[in-house]
Amino acid sequence: MKIVVLGAGQLARMMSLAGAPLDLNVVAYDVRSARMVHPLTQEVFPWDLAQAIEKADVITAEFEHIPDPVLEACSPSGKFCPGTTAIKTGGDRRLEKTLLDKLAIPCAPYQLITAQEHLNQGINQLGLPLVIKTCQAGYDGKGQWRLTADSDRDQLWSQMQAFLASGSVDTPRTIIAEKMIPFQREVSVIGARDRSGKVAIYPVTENHHTNGVLTLSIAKKEAKKEAVDIQAQAEAAFFKLTSAMDYVGVLAIEFFDVQGKLMVNEIAPRVHNSGHWTQQGTLCSQFENHLRAVAGLPLGTTRMLGPSAMVNVLGETFIPTGVLMTPGVTSHWYGKACRPGRKMGHINIVAENEKALGEKLIAIAQYLPEESYPGVARHGQYLVEGV
Ligand code: ATP
Ligand code: MG
Predict the structure, then answer these.
(1) pTM > 0.90
(2) Could you tell me which residues are beta bridge partners of residue 131?
(3) Is 124 a member of any domain?
(4) Which residues line ligand 1 (CB under 6 A)?
(5) Which of 140, 258, 266 is the best mutation target for the ligand 1 pocket, counting ligand atoms within 8 Å of the beta carbon and taking the most?
(6) CATH number of the domain to which 46 belongs
(7) What is the pLDDT of residues 38-93, one digit of tens each?
(8) Which domain holds residue 202?
C-alpha cells in the first residue's frame, strides 16, 4: 500500500521505518520545495503532488501547518486522514480553543487578540503573568511571549502588531493570551483511532521542557490511584476530541497537571515527540499505530513493555558510545544537517521497573552534559527514590 505523508521531516522518516515491515510504503511531500521525496534518503521522485495523490492509497500528515492549497489538493481525493478539519484545528489555537470549549474540556482561560484593546482586556480579566502565543505557525515554544510586568505592555504590543500585520485575507493572523497556569507538571496522551471508531491509547507521558522545547519524556508504569485517575481524565479528553472530529489516525494531547486535574494545553493531529518512547517501550509504536489506523488495519497493542524514557538530542552531532553501551538504550537519528538547538535525534531507554529506569538515566547522564541534556540525572534520581 502506498502512503503519502505531507511533510518530509523526522516524523515521516519514522513512519516510513515503522511501515516497511507491514509493506506500507511511505513517500513524503516536502512542502517547502514542493517535491515528492524518499523519507529516509530525501531522494527526489519525478512526480508532482497531483500525481502522488493519484497514485496514493492513503494520504496523511506529519505536521499541522500545511498551506491551504496543499490541503485543497488532497481533500477531494477522499484519501486524506485525519482530514483537513483536524489538521486546521491543530494548526490554529483559535480553532482548537473553540473546539475545547464546545466539548467542555478544561483548558487555560484565554483572550483572543487582534487589536490593542483586546490585550488590555486580557490583562484586566486574566491578570498577569500572561503567556501570549501566535494562533498560527507556532512550534517548540516559538511565536510566544511572556508578559509579567505591566510596564512591558507597550513594547510587547509593538511586537505583536508586527505579527498581526503580517497576515492577509487568505492567511489570517490572530494572537491568544492565556493565563499562566501554575502547573505541577506537564503530561501528554497519545492514542490512535481507526476507521470504525476503535481506539488504542498509550499510557500518559510526563514531559519536561527547557526554554519551550521538549527535552525529556518519562512514561512510568505505575498503578498508583492518582495515576489511574490521570489516565482516565486524559482518555476522556481523547474520546471526546476524536469522536467530535470523527478522527482517524494518531492524536496527541498535551496537558497541564494542576493538583491532579488535567487542563489541555494544546492538541497535535499527528504522531508526537512525547510518544517517541513507544518505539522501544511497546510492541506497536505510535508510528505503526498511526499507519495501521489510516491504512484500515487493526490497531496494535499499546501495552508497555516496561517503564520508558526519551531524551531529545538537540544540536548535537554524535551520541557518546557509553550511552549506547548501557543496556536498554537505543538511539534514533533523523539524518538532518546540524544547527544549534535543532532536533537531531533522540535516545530511548526502557527498563524492567521504575527504579531500574532511574538507574539507567543516571548512568547515561555521566556521558551527557547537563547543559545539552538538562534534567536527565535529576529525574533519574527521582525515579530511584520513587518520587
Ligand atoms: P510544542 O510544539 O513544542 O508543543 P508550542 O510552541 O506549540 O510547543 P506550547 O505547547 O503551547 O507551544 O507551549 C510551550 C510550553 O510553554 C508548554 O509546554 C509549557 O511549558 C509553556 N506554556 C504554554 N502555555 C502555558 C500556560 N498557559 N501557562 C503556563 N505555561 C505555559
Ligand atoms: Mg506544546
Answers:
(1) yes
(2) 146, 178
(3) yes
(4) 108, 131, 133, 138-142, 178, 180-181, 186, 209, 212, 214, 254, 265-266
(5) 266
(6) 3.40.50.20
(7) 999 999 999 999 999 999 999 999 999 999 999 999 999 999 999 999 999 999 99
(8) 185-385
